[in-house]
Amino acid sequence: MIRQALTETGIFLIPFAVYALFLIATRSGLLVQTSWPIHLVARLVLASLLLIILSLVMLANFSGSPPNSTYVPAHVENGKLVPGVETSGVERPGGEK
Fold it and tell me: How many structural domains are present in the chain?
């Protein structure tokens, strides 16, 4: 969970880092207040929020188990604990459908 939070925080900071690199490259004064007008900061925040929304949509679409898969929870077979698995949805372990 902390990895996801740090990843989203890093994604949020990307537009600010790019603008800071631009200010350094143009020698415009990184810490000067006139280099960070409120309308520009608002645009950077908007860009950051759009990047976060995009990353969450990508995470939801391209991670996790495959579509139509079935989760078979951990269970005991012959006195041994069998860990939970995700099946392709066609057939469950033990021959069940």
Answer: 1
Q: What contacts 24+ positions apart, CB below 8 Å, involve 49-55?
A: 49/12, 51/11, 51/12, 51/14, 51/15, 52/8, 52/11, 52/12, 55/7, 55/8, 55/11
Asked whether residue 95 is domain-assigned, the answer is no
Please, what is the average pLDDT of the chain?
Answer: 88
- Nearest in space to 15 (alpha carbons), one of 38, 46, 55: 46
Please report where in the chains the tokens 């372990």 appear, as a residue. Answer: 93
Instruction: State how far the alpha carbon of 2 is from the alpha carbons of 8, 41, 72, in Å.
Output: 10, 27, 27
| Global confidence as pTM | 0.67
